[in-house]
Design a protein that fits this description.
This is TraB/GumN family protein. The chain contains 13 helices and six strands. By secondary structure, the chain is α/β, with parallel strands linked by helices.
Length: 284
């Protein structure tokens, strides 16, 4: 079950064991020609408490702009997301599963999303699975990104994105729809209780700021889907972000907020920046 959940949160991760990182979500980027430091925060997209701590608020105050994975301030984002959710080549959920498995998925979605599979028949299976997220927590959903944007607006600062909605949605065209559907069927068969238990473990690791533990948690034998597709889901995106982060940070002191699981591992943002010569140190 954890395969689909991990995709929505965030929380995408690196699977290679790299140098152990300090328990921290906020990191200071300096050196290598930067006139002022920038900051990097590992976020989680769905939480019960998105309160920003003093160090994060201080870092926001010391920077002049906010960069998230995407420009969540874009008024056209919703329309772009809906377009990007659609499968290509006429594929549908119905065509990707046996009648028996489709029925299981349909019942699971009706119970936990409030609509049947027929209404989402053309959506990419992994993205359909993400719609169950509101059922994962027993509280109103809050967002770290939303809080970061709120503070930036109060400071009259702009919000930008490291990638476009089209680029992020295209990631799920690089993984076969058949493979995605297999995971969605497995999720439906396992049921909501296992999903909630998995989510709680992940939330506990995030609250503990334990990036190493988060990597270990997702790098187990049950996580074959992400293990086989980590280059597409994580590594390529991280590498694409590095030259953008460099150029942005050299121009202005910037606060970067990306899913926490993007930070760890040999191909994580922290190690990639260090390999480029930057000093990236935990803010505690």
């Amino acid at each position: 079950m954890k395969k689909i959940l991990i995709a929505a949160i965030t929380l995408f991760t690196c699977f290679a064991h790299a140098q152990q990182l300090d328990n921290a979500l906020l990191w200071k980027i300096s050196g290598n020609g930067l006139s002022k430091p920038s900051y990097l925060l590992g976020t989680i997209h769905v939480t019960c408490d998105a309160t920003l701590d003093k160090n994060t608020l201080d870092a926001l105050g010391a920077t002049s702009q906010l960069y998230l994975e995407m420009d969540m301030d874009d008024p056209g984002m919703q329309a772009k997301m809906m377009t990007g959710m659609m499968m290509k080549d006429g594929k549908t959920l119905t065509s990707l599963a046996s009648p028996e498995d489709y029925k299981i998925v349909d019942e699971f979605l009706q119970k936990n999303v409030g609509m049947g599979a027929k209404m989402m028949d053309k959506f990419k299976p992994s993205l359909v699975g993400m719609m169950v997220l509101p059922k994962m927590i027993d509280c109103p959903i809050q967002s770290i990104e939303g809080e970061l944007m709120k503070v930036s607006k109060e400071q009259k600062e702009e919000v930008y994105g490291l990638e476009t909605m089209e680029e992020q949605m295209a990631v799920f065209d690089m993984i076969s729809y058949e493979e995605q559907m297999k995971e969605l069927v497995k999720t439906a068969k396992e049921g909501i209780d296992e999903s909630k238990a998995t989510f709680k473990k992940m939330m506990d690791l995030y609250k503990a700021k334990n990036l190493n533990g988060l990597m270990d948690f997702m790098n187990d034998e049950d996580n074959q889907f992400y293990g086989e597709n980590s280059v597409v889901l994580l590594d390529n995106r991280n590498r694409n972000w590095i030259p953008k982060i460099e150029a942005i940070a050299k121009k202005d002191a910037t606060f970067f907020g990306v899913g926490a699981a993007h930070l760890g591992g040999d191909q994580g943002v922290i190690m990639l920046l260090r390999k480029k010569g930057y000093k990236v140190e935990a803010v505690k």
